Amino acid sequence: MKNHSLWRDAFGRLFQDKWAVASFIIVIAYSLVAILSAMGLIAYDWAREVGGSNLPPSAEHYFGTDIFGRDVLSKVIRGTQIAMSVGLATSLIAIPIGVILGAFAGYFGGWVDDLITWLYTTFSSIPNIMLLISITMILGKGLFAVYVALGATSWVNLCRLIRGEVMKHKEREYVQAAGAIGGGHFRKLFKHILPNVTHIIIINTSLQFQIAIKSEVILSYLGLGVQGEPSWGTMIDDAKLELSRGVWWQLAGATLAMFVIVLAFNLLGDALRDSLDPKLKGK
Amino acid sequence: MKFLSILLCALIFSGCSKERNFDERELHLISLEKFAGFDPIQVSDRYSGNETGKVYEGLFEFHPFKRPYILVPNLAESLPTVSADGLVYTFKLKKGVVFHDSPCFKDGKGRELRADDVLYSIRRLADPKLQAKGWWLIDDKISGLNEWRTKYASLDHSNYEEAIDGLKKIDELTVQITLKKPFPQFLYALAMPYTFIVPKEAVDHFGKEFLNHPVGTGPFILEKFEQSNEIVYHKNPTFREKFYPTEGAEGDDKLGLLADAGKRLPLVDKITVHIMPESQTQWLSFQKGKADLLELKSMYERAVDKSKELHQELKSKGIRLFMDPMLDVTFYAFNHENPFFKNRKVRQAISLAYNRAENNKLFYNNSALEAQGVIPPGLGGYRKEFKNPYTKFDIDQAKRLLREAGYPDGKGFPEITIETRSETSARQSIEYFAKCMEKIGIVVKAGINTWPELVKKVSTKQHQMYTMAWGADYPDAENFLGLVYCPNQSPGSNGANYCNPDFDALFKQATILQDSPERSAFYEKMNEMVSLDVPWVFGFHRTEFYVAQAWLKNFKQMEFNHTQFQYLGVDLEVKKELSKKF
Fold first, then answer.
1. What does the pLDDT read at residue A274?
2. Domain covering B23-27+224-324+546-581, topology
3. Does domain B328-541 correspond to CATH entry 3.30.70.420?
4. Rounded to 5°, angle at Cα B208 from B204 and B209
5. Which of A62, A66, B381, B564 is most buried, taking the most CB atoms under 10 A from its CB?
6. Contacts by B256-264 with C-beta closer than 8 Å and gap 24+?
7. Is A140 on the interface with B (CB under 8 A)?
8. Hey, what's the torsion of the CAs at B230, B234, B235, B239, to 10 degrees?
């Protein structure tokens, strides 16, 4: 008899959903574009003047050119690199913070829980965009500040979820059993409980990723984000002045790129929840 | 349901009837910026000046039509008598000028304007407790005033009763102001919003709410003030007898600007100012005929075609286009305290590598004038024939100069950050500047700041370079030459911290001269001398565009336009006729 693991089961369900598969492919494609661009293989010469100012889309330049005659497609690709890197960096910062704090709060309870709950309620009571702006003010503007700012503000949700889940699990029999055979706190927490809440982390990451991308766009639009590099946000900001001249392609390019990836992450997040959450199993 | 449809009908028709009111002479204007409130001493930008100027008045104003700008008495009876040494100014006030009716006065009736009000308003500008934005204007100018300010800076209340040397009341309608040193621009200062006359009663009565309850002598009374929506004024019924001018500049007669000559002001009964910071909304509401006048900024291309003519569709509605060069200059200033910029050849190289013609095309629709020096056209001291050899576009020479300066192809030259505001156009123009500098191997980055951040960086000398536009406060080149005068360096207006002893010596001599051809010649010499030293990378003198509806009468572009609105009129016949087309 062959035993299907939980994960295999879940992914089996996931791949039956054709929207989820499409979303997954899109995410992979964006990641590839971002990696290629980061390696300098594509869109490395986005700053080069390739034609006249504000040329409409044509066979030569699929997305037209911007005010300085730069290829908008290259800028969109470069923007993809930045957006994906922000999503990734933010997740890398936010997930460990959220998971560790959430797990500690949920497992130990008492004053640890009080402290961490106080910390995240305080954090979440500050309007996010204000916090982002103040962090970028302190760190100076640029990509690094965006990573840190978004990372530091987006762990709250995950932390709260993990805390609740850990609280539930720590009273379960398997944890008690682990304790009975002499497992310490850390062993119980990391070896036994955490693997059982991983699905929350995965679902959350997928949703977090697109929030980070959107936030980066907003920050760049406000002039607080990436400096001197094309970002979807700055492209949309440029479009503010261009639209009156009938130049719509920069706005269209950036918005489309953002729309597709945000939608893909959302669909993927939903599908992941459907397939990973044991409560929804068999639905 | 029936009730709902009646309600709907009522809504629809009330909307329409408002549109169809052609009996009231009402102006609809658009303000491009939000407005903080009516306190003259805090009014530092043009849009705030426009609102304040409807309610308050100063001793003088600029003639609405004559050019070059000349001062004419407003609340003053005539131009003042000035002592031979140019220090003592004696002003006579007009008789029978009354403040708006307001609960701050006894019985609610506006009282007559007195000499004390003038002195009070100037003291308010100097009051250390109020942190007036316009203090610089009279800083170190009036005898005894700085001492008064310093004395009360650390005390709880400023004593307005204490005598000040330079501010004297001769009789109820005569004021004498004594200056510390000659300052020929002093009268211009008395035409600026900062020195508009406010009554003490209103300031005391309204306290912190004074901002929202202006009580002036002006042609209009504030009726409604919604900071981010609209401001409504109606005609001041107790406004003194003031008449539309009978003279203007050459050709004004033909333009019909003098048709209302001799009529009593103001010409309209009501003004509604719509606050619309978004250019798209501004444009749409003008296009629908809901606004009479609009300053065209980023919507320029919606209105004007390549040959600088209005689009046919707009012309057919009788809309007119106005364009006039502004009294301003844009620049990229070096911080001269930075050792790299001490080398003149570096500055010249950077200036030569900047392609102004292309920039003009990209950002100003080719409508701006390339600046050759500090002084804009329209002011004494500007010479049309003067061409600065370092404002042309010459990459080869730029490279040569940079090599001679010791940085061949930019090697060894640090990355430069140019500080600017966060607006889209500001960022883009630095991107363009950076593109130009790339050609000579200099790396430029944009430092994006909010306005207060930018001001702070520049005034604490934390910048390498910054870019800004300077608009005239008054029509005197001194206002521009002061930008490169050493004693004005940060936190003063010389944010470039540029120092040139020869220039400074000339500046000291020139600025005490009264307006005269000699002074203009002096200014010319100074302008050309300093321009060749390239204290900044000179940018442009920009052009300002307005579109006006056919029914708006007497509009003429004006740099110092806060008193302009009383002269504007509405031709109701034309409006009625044309409204079918909208």
1. 85
2. D-Maltodextrin-Binding Protein; domain 2 (3.40.190)
3. no
4. 90
5. A66
6. B256/B553, B257/B65, B257/B554, B257/B556, B258/B65, B259/B553, B259/B554, B260/B553, B260/B554, B260/B567, B260/B569
7. no
8. -90
Distance from the A224 Cα atom to the nearest Cα atom in chain B, whole angstroms: 8
A237 vs B contacts (CB less than 8 Å): 424, 427
A224 and B CB contact within 8 Å: yes
* CATH architecture, domain defined by A2-280: Orthogonal Bundle (1.10)
φ/ψ of residue B118, rounded to 5: -65, -50
Q: Do B435 and A234 touch (CB under 8 A)?
A: no
Q: What is the pLDDT of residues B155-207, one digit of tens each?
A: 988 999 999 999 999 999 999 999 999 998 999 999 999 999 999 999 999 99
Closest chain B residue to A133, measured at CA: B450
- Average pLDDT on A239-268 reads 90
Q: Residue A278: its pLDDT value, please? A: 66
Given CB atoms, is A238 within the 8 Å cutoff of chain B?
A: yes
Q: Supply the pLDDT for residue A224.
A: 81
Q: For position A140, what pLDDT does the model report?
A: 78
| Nearest chain A alpha carbon to B453 | A137
Spans in chain B with pLDDT lower than 50: 1-4, 9-18
Rg over CA atoms, chain A: 22
Report the first-to-last Cα separation within chain B, whole angstroms: 33
A41 Cα distance to chain centroid:
24
The mean pLDDT of A2-9, rounded to a whole number, is: 70
Choose the closest CB to A223 out of B298, B299, B427.
Answer: B427
Domain boundaries of chain A, sorted by first residue: 2-280
Domains B23-27+224-324+546-581 and B39-203 share a fold: no
Residues of B whose CB is below 8 A from A241: 298, 424-425, 428
- Who among B279, B299, B432 is closest to A68 (CB)? B432
The topology under which CATH files domain B39-203 is Dipeptide-binding Protein; domain 1 (3.90.76)
Strands B230-235 and B220-225: antiparallel
Is A222 at the interface with chain B, CB within 8 A?
yes
Is A261:A83 a contact under the CB 8 Å cutoff?
yes
Residue A259 has pLDDT above 70, yes or no: yes
In tens, the pLDDT along A180-220 reads: 898 889 888 888 998 888 888 988 999 889 999 998 998 88
Does B281 lie at the interface with A, CB-CB under 8 angstroms? Answer: no
* Contact criterion met (CB < 8 Å) for B301 and A238: no
Instruction: Kindly state the tokens that stand for B202.
Output: 């209103």
Summarize pLDDT for B119-141 with one digit per residue, the tens.
Answer: 999 999 999 999 898 998 999 99
Contact assignment for A68 to B431 by CB distance below 8 Å: yes
